Amino acid sequence: MPTLESTGVAINNDLGVNLPDFSSEEYKDAYSRINAIVIEGEKEAHGNYLAIGTLIPDKAEELKKLAVMELKHMKGFTACGRNLGVKADMPFAEKFFLPLHGNFQKAFKEQNLTTCFLIQAILIEAFAISAYHVYIRVADPFARKITENVVKDEYLHLNYGQEWLKANLSTCKEDLMKANKENLPLIKSMLDQVADDAESLDMDKEELMEEFMIAYQDSLMEIGLDTREIARMALAALV
Description:
Elements: E1 11-12, E2 18-19, H1 25-55, H2 60-83, H3 90-109, H4 113-136, H5 141-167, H6 169-193, H7 195-200, H8 205-223, H9 227-234
Antiparallel strand pairs: 1-2
Helix pairs in contact: 1-2, 1-3, 1-4, 2-5, 3-4, 3-6, 4-5, 4-6, 4-8, 5-8, 6-8, 8-9
């Protein structure tokens, strides 16, 4: 697959947005970490949905289908890096996800489905959807097409988690609040870690956080929490 070449001149996409120089060393250096994060994120999601399926045997096939989608996404984002001639920094990405990965594994061992769904199907999916929406506007043409298709699937995953938590809210609300307090601050710290790299890709940190919090709070509302509960949960991001 040929690597995209830069003209060295700022160009607009059909959204009317100036695109970065995809061939610059600064861009490629930042992209090596951002690309690794999305690849690792999809890989983690694949494993997480399979794990959740073992805790809900009657839903295992449905969750396996979600997992297979994530594997497809991982391959797509790997191709995005290859298209730009960039090698993903996977050791960085593995370390990046370690706190959330550890919390998910702990919840899984305790068979705490509420925390498992909150981490994977709500927090991570809302984070991915918001980041992908911001990225699409400044992505190279190849990556933009792949990312647009990925976003459509991620909404299915977010909705799956929402529906499970909504159906079980009467018995899981306390666990949900606790899991939120422990894991929402991790999203902010993760975003802080890659703020400079995101800026190199013309993605604004404040916009990323704003988009995430909107998506996350909308999800909590769909689950059935009231505005006071949602506001209290959102405050955990400021810790």
